[in-house]
Amino acid sequence: MTSVLLSVNQLSKSYGGRLAVDGVNFQVRHGQTVGLIGPNGAGKSSTVSMICGLLRSDSGSVELEGEAMAQGQTGAKLKIGLVPQDLALYEDLSALENLKLFGALYGLKGALLKERCAQALDMVRLADRAADKPSTFSGGMKRRLNIAAALLHEPKLLILDEPTVGVDPQSRNAIFDTLEALKAKGMALIYTSHYMEEVERLADHIVIIDHGKVLADESPADLYRRLPAQAALRAELAQPLAAERMAELLAGLRSLPGVSAVRELGSQAGEGGPVLEIGLAATAHAASVLAWLNAQGCALQHFATAKTNLEDIFLNLTGRSLRD
Q1: CATH number of domain containing 302
Q2: Are residues 236 and 284 in the same domain?
Q3: How many domains, in total, are found in the chain?
Q4: Which of 144, 199, 243, 293 could form a disulfide with 124 if both were Cys (CB 3.0 to 4.6 A apart)?
């Protein structure tokens, strides 16, 4: 197992009388991609700001390779690259001039600065637009330039806060390709997003925060094991069933090997028979369940299978109520 790069220890932060971050703990290892997710107002942004040293915590600590992240301490901060949700670019400077400015803030100059700018532009596929201004760029290109600016000082940890907001599918895939290339080179990433499919694609470890507390801190595989159903079969019967017959059918389904739960959802727009949602321990059990339904004389109008995904787990842990 790789060594620990970042340690977040009992971080807490209050705003007035509201406790926004409540004893948050987690670690990031060298070369690891951690998905940091939670509903709106869960405490993610405050946690990220404290990790970067932009916000002072009320209690707790942040360490990078054993070095404390503290006010006035620049050593630990220089190991972090931050890609903020709000674009941090100068629209009337060229892409290259933007990078030269940010590089100078990191203390880079001369031939080294020129080399780092060229490498960063190449990494995000903007080398051919180096002389153009961000004011002429699409939203996705601006996001990629934002990432380039965070890479100039070759950080050990890159933190990305909603980096694909408002970008087209092509730019999203270009961003994913860049992040996967950085991970392959050994860079550690913290990735925050409301798009669960992005976190599923990129992260090998997931931290879920809600109401300022860590609800989960584990691998995707371990998270999936939290739900009894790893897959689902949705079966729409061709004909309605009498109440007694439906009760018998549901009881029979629940007794089948590999079936963890059964729900009757009612008919679709009043047509045909009821829809059954059947939780399965694995997708492989779907065939035997369908065979059993056929043996019971239940003709199907439609059926579909699906695997449990991160959104299912997220909603199971944080609930379905709307957030601000």
Answers
A1: 3.30.70.100
A2: yes
A3: 2
A4: 144
- For residue 30 the two structure tokens come to 């060298």
Over residues 117-156, the pLDDT tens digits come to 999 999 999 999 999 999 999 999 999 999 999 999 999 9
pLDDT tens per residue across span 9-61: 999 999 988 999 999 999 999 999 999 999 988 999 999 999 998 899 999 99
Same domain, 107 and 166: yes
DSSP 58: S
Q: Residue written as tokens 């931050």? A: 82
Domain interval for residue 68: 4-221
Q: Which pTM does this prediction carry?
A: 0.81
**Residue 285: strand pairing partners:** none
Contact partners, residue 173, CB within 8 Å, separation at least 6: none
Whether residues 74 and 201 share a domain: the answer is yes
Q: Is residue 324 part of a domain?
A: no
User: Euclidean distance between the first and final Cα of the chain, in Å?
Assistant: 39
Task: At 163, list the tokens.
Answer: 């980096």
Q: What residues have CB less than 8 Å from 72, skipping those under 6 apart?
A: none
